[in-house]
């Protein structure tokens, strides 16, 4: 009788601890996601220099690598529907606009980007979120043209 009581008590304690750990882990993931979202949302509709943009690109690439995001044959991160973040940059190129992904900038080298665009101004014009997790999915930065009259 005592063995049965302690066995049931042990199983209930184990289930309680397992549930508490699950809730704790879930809350930590949610807090981390909110923190990450807030960091990216701070860039919405403000002008930043190219040096700050390349820092964000590098940080985002590191975050994707840390989260174990796979890359496809073209070296682009594959959207996992959960925590993949992609940055698109629209450059003014002559009379046209050319859009590059952050991986393209990575391939060309950050030094080349800094050399060419360190003092250029960019503005975050769009942020998208993953449907399932509400984590930041992608950001679009546009180069701001300096109109000279």
Kindly state the percentage of residues in helix: 40-55%
DSSP, total strands:
5
Low-confidence runs of at least 5 consecutive residues: none
| Rg, Å, rounded | 22 Å
Shape: elongated
Percentage of residues in DSSP E strands: 15-25%
Q: In terms of structural class, how would the helical and strand content be classed?
A: alpha+beta
Report the sheet with the most strands, covering strand number, pairing sense and barrel closure.
5 strands, mixed
Strand order across the biggest sheet? 1-4-5-2-3
**What is the rounded distance between the termini?**
93 Å
SSE pattern = HEHEEHHEE
Give average pLDDT, whole number: 90
Total number of helices: 4
Molecular structure report:
The protein is an alpha+beta fold and 149 residues long. The chain is built from four helices and five strands. It has helices at 2-41, 50-66, 102-108, 110-117; strands at residues 47-49, 86-93, 96-101, 121-129, 136-143. The protein has a five-stranded mixed beta sheet. A hairpin with a 2-residue loop joins strand 2 and strand 3. Helix 2 runs antiparallel to helix 4 and helix 3 (102-108) crosses helix 4. The radius of gyration is 22 Å and the shape is elongated. The relative contact order is 0.17.
